[in-house]
Design goal:
The protein has 25 helices and five strands. It has helices at 10-17, 38-47, 49-66, 76-85, 89-97, 105-113, 120-145, 148-160, 162-168, 174-194, 197-213, 217-232, 240-271, 283-294, 298-318, 320-340, 354-364, 366-372, 377-398, 406-416, 431-437, 440-443, 453-462, 476-479, 484-492; strands at residues 422-426, 446-449, 468-473, 493-498, 504-509. A hairpin with a 5-residue loop joins strand 4 (493-498) and strand 5.
């Protein structure tokens, strides 16, 4: 994807002969910022099918991301976001430095948002907004990668993606990381073509913002840098000026990220010191990532992966570097994730930036279809197919709870627990979502946390004459992998209720 001379070789003749233009030759009057005016914007909207389609996709994406935004209760990780975000800016940074496995940027932003109120919508508002903005961003990335058709199909994949919609409605940093990685990728692609200083500068800045959003963004950033080095390796002398500018972009990233890099190295040592007690290991992380990004449906996963493979082949045939770009980033990300999965917890949501590469590959597939059937219907057909693949999954998503119902559970517990009762969270850290919806102060109860059978025995011995309720979730398997706490609960308690999702269990002492 370095600069190429047009018309060189037969592949360019073939490529130019099968171009598809939804605009039928319409040229945008806006070439730079100076061209922005009311009349030019009106002309662009009325004259460009791409812009019209992008506006429609963005509006649909906005609806899908904001619809029932507050319906689901906060689950454990979102409640953790709240717990950390209510701290001061300095304390949030200290929390990261002391071992919190997420950078502080999202918590700082949420801290500001909480000044506007405290509810699920406020906490999820920033991810939802960035989720919407990611749709036109995917268009720009696709356009820069190949052409506007690739861009509009990638934007459609983003708009309808159940995976991205889910994380756009979650008070965590994954979508923010994706957005910043997306901007960094866009300017990386621009820089590879233009060799402009400003493009490498923006790449460095947004790479740093992505890293401050989520540590795993570093994998994508490193992959982009490695790709550039591979592209330039055969002709490093002629690309030496580009290499200097890339180094400048890296320096910008390092300077902006230096405090976090130092903390990251310490946390990496801590997190890889023992085997993970949860997460997905080995090749399962590869398979599960494809499944989740595709929408948790095996048939849809097969179709998406097949389209991606065809797209990689098409990209390689169009321009060798483009195919290498798609394959290198995908393979490198999975290799790193495979290795780390045995050292630290690994989950598909950490790899959310792979949607950029996956959706680009799917979008490029239109080239192969268009070479067989030269009609604009191919582009619209891809958009319709992507919608149809996602529609049944989204219908199920919006028809019920997709997270644990702590709100309903808290109300039930408030009714059951009498003044003087003991509430035990098993494991102890699930008190975070519980306490967001349940007030021990209002209920005049006492709360404890337990993760092992020994913890439970100690609580019982100190409160033998009290009514004791045990709030339990599947997290106990991660907190107590030996299973002693589960065995204790089976022997000493009776199940008396669950939440609406059958994921939170309420026991009482037998």
């Amino acid at each position: 994807m370095a600069k190429k001379k047009e018309g060189r070789g037969p592949e360019n003749i073939h490529r130019n002969s099968i171009e598809c233009d939804l605009d039928d030759g319409y040229k945008s009057p806006i070439k730079s910022v100076r061209d922005i005016s009311v009349n030019n914007i009106k002309s662009l909207i009325s004259g460009s099918r791409y812009i019209q389609s992008l506006i429609i996709l963005t509006l649909i994406g906005l609806f899908l991301r904001f619809y029932d935004l507050g319906f689901n209760s906060l689950w454990l990780d979102e409640a953790s976001t709240y717990t950390i975000s209510i701290k001061s800016f300095a304390d949030i940074w200290q929390t990261t430095a002391n071992g919190e496995f997420n950078p502080p940027l999202f918590y700082w932003i949420e801290h500001v948002m909480l000044m506007l109120g405290n509810n699920e919508i406020i906490l999820r508002f920033i991810p939802a907004v960035l989720g919407v903005l990611t749709i036109p961003l995917f268009y720009l990335i696709g356009k820069e990668f190949l052409d506007r058709n690739t861009g509009i199909i990638a934007a459609a994949a983003c708009a309808f993606s159940p995976f991205l919609i889910f994380y756009s409605q979650e008070a965590r940093a994954y979508i923010m990381m994706l957005f910043f990685v997306g901007v960094a990728t866009l300017y990386f692609l621009k820089a590879m073509k233009s060799a402009k200083f400003v493009h490498w500068l923006i790449f460095g800045i947004f790479s740093a913002l992505a890293f401050w959003s989520h540590f795993y963004a570093f994998v994508m950033i490193a992959s982009l840098i490695l790709y550039a080095l591979i592209e330039w390796a055969p002709h490093i002398k002629t690309e030496f000026n580009n290499l200097k500018q890339l180094i400048f972009g890296i320096i910008v990233f390092v300077i902006l990220s230096l405090p976090l890099i130092l903390v990251t190295l310490q946390l990496l040592i801590i997190r890889t010191a023992s085997a993970p007690t949860y997460g997905i290991q080995g090749m399962d992380i590869v398979l599960e990532t494809f499944v989740q990004i595709s929408g948790m449906n095996e048939i849809v996963t097969f179709i998406i992966v097949a389209l991606f493979i065809i797209g990689c082949i098409s990209a390689y045939r169009i321009e060798k570097g483009k195919g290498i770009f798609l394959v290198l980033i995908t393979v490198l990300t999975f290799i790193v994730s495979f290795v780390l999965s045995f050292k630290m917890p690994m989950l598909p949501r950490y790899l959310i930036f792979l949607t950029i590469v996956l959706f680009l590959g799917v979008a490029v597939t239109y080239k192969s279809v268009y070479s067989l059937w030269s009609t604009k219907a191919v582009i619209y057909g891809f958009i319709v197919v992507l919608f149809l693949l996602s529609a049944p999954i989204l219908a199920g998503y919006y028809s019920g709870y997709s997270k644990e119902d702590w709100r309903g559970f808290g109300a039930t517990l408030q009714q059951k627990a009498q003044p003087g009762s003991i509430i035990v969270s098993v494991p102890g850290y699930i008190s975070q979502p519980l306490d967001y919806y349940y007030s021990s102060k209002n209920g005049k109860t006492s709360e404890y946390g337990a993760s092992t059978a020994a913890d439970l025995d100690e609580i019982i011995s100190k409160n033998s004459n009290s009514t004791i309720y045990f709030v339990v979730t599947g997290d106990i398997s991660a907190a107590d992998p030996k299973g002693d706490a589960v065995a204790w609960l089976k022997s000493n308690t009776t199940l008396i209720g669950t939440d609406a999702t059958q994921a939170i269990y309420l026991f009482t002492k037998s």
